[in-house]
Amino acid sequence: MLQRLQWLNSRMRKTLFQLHLLGAAVGGLFIVILGLTGSIMAFEEELDHLTHPRLFRVSPQGAPLPLATLAARAIAASPGKPVVTYGLGVSPDLPWSVNVGGTIVFVNEYTGEILGTRSGPTWLGQIHQLHLRLLAGDTGKTIVSWADVVMLLLSLSGIYLWWPIKRITINAAARGRRFWFDVHNAVGVCAFLLVFLLAVTGAVIAFDAWTTPLLYRVTGSHPAQGGLAVTPMAAQVLTPDQALALARNELPGAVPVSINVPGAKTPYRIALRYPEDRTPGGRSRVFIDQYRGTVLQVESSRTTAAGTRMVILNRAIHTGDVLGMPTKVLMSLASLAAVAQAISGLMMWWKRRQSRSAR
After folding, report:
1. Who contacts 104 (Cβ-Cβ below 8 Å, separation ≥6)?
2. Pairing of strands 268-273, 284-288
3. Closest of 206, 207, 196 to residue 330, by C-alpha
């Protein structure tokens, strides 16, 4: 009986080893791309501010100017286009912005000075899209989704294959395949939990068309109503500043981060962010009828449906936003660990091939 179990274990290890190699060969390149771009994306907002200091720094000087005034300044800087959205800084030293027909105009909200404009994708935006879709649309998204699954399976099979060895030291004097084998083992084991977490949360995001409804079913909750519409009427339309004031009253303690310019039949949508909400876009929303000045819907990240909170938490874990800078650093390092695993695995294969060729 014992011999039978040992034989089965040996066969399983050989099969898993071959599958591990196959998974690495198929998904290795994509895992490297995901790891490198993910390590940068963990600090996307910080890098954007660092590389464009003029666009992301103002000196607070009393109360901000009305949004209508800022819109007029932005339109003058980019004439002939309609205002689409307003962006509001989450702290007093960050500028506001006005989206004028797709051109983002950064404005000092205290003086009305135009700080600069931005149109088209930025280099960070391109990295973000490379991470999400490989710059290849839906086809790229599908490849990324399955690369996440491959990374998950590689993590699990790798820890199983390592278990009988249990070696996490790197012999600096070793050469060739042995050195890369030590690196592969050490990095894989030390970073296993974080890489596994990256893969799981990434897969949940990648297959959100299936996982999001599942989270609502598991929690017995329902998403907030979407597609809100208003009935136009011959009345004075609520100004953006008035809508903003109403939203602040609905969610005290939350900082507004964006407000749209409503269409004829679509309401104001004001996004807000509580201090514990680390994601830049904000996870709380207030919808307001611009004709009647009535609040149509309020969704707070603190009290929203359990399924929505799980979706938010999963994404925050994956990006490292969940606890701020410490977790951003950890998830960035985890992304680099996945790259190190792919490269060390490739080097092991290459050294083994060289050794066989030399015989």
Report:
1. 87, 97, 98, 117, 118, 119
2. antiparallel
3. 196
Q: What is the pTM of this model?
A: 0.89
CA dist 161 and 13 (Å) reads 7
- What are 247's two structure tokens? 């939203």
Q: What is the pLDDT of residues 215-234, one digit of tens each?
A: 999 999 999 888 899 999 88
Below-70 pLDDT ranges, the chain: 1-9, 358-359
H or E element that contains 258: strand 255-260
The two tokens of residue 90 are: 């989450």
Please tell me whether residue 125 adopts helix, strand or coil conformation. Answer: helix
Q: Are 84 and 104 within 8 A, CB to CB?
A: no
- Which pLDDT belongs to residue 1? 64
Tell me if 296 sits within 8 A of 285, measured CB to CB: no
Contact (CB, 8 A) for 244 and 270: yes
Does residue 79 come out as left (phi exceeding 0), alpha (psi in the -120 to 50 range) or beta? Answer: beta
Bridge partner list, 87: 97, 258
Based on the number of CB atoms within 10 Å of its own CB, is 204 exposed (0-12), middle (13-18) or buried (19 or more)? buried
Is residue 126 within 8 A of residue 135, CB to CB? The reply is yes
Tokens, residue 108: 């000092």
Q: Which residue has the tokens 């050794």?
A: 355
- Burial letters 148-158, b for 16+ CB under 10 A, else e: bbbbbbbbebb
CB 260 within 8 A of CB 247: no
CB-CB contact of 205 with 315 (8 Å): yes
Give residue 312's pLDDT.
Answer: 92
Question: What is the helix (H) or strand (E) element at residue 268, kind and residue range?
Answer: strand 268-273
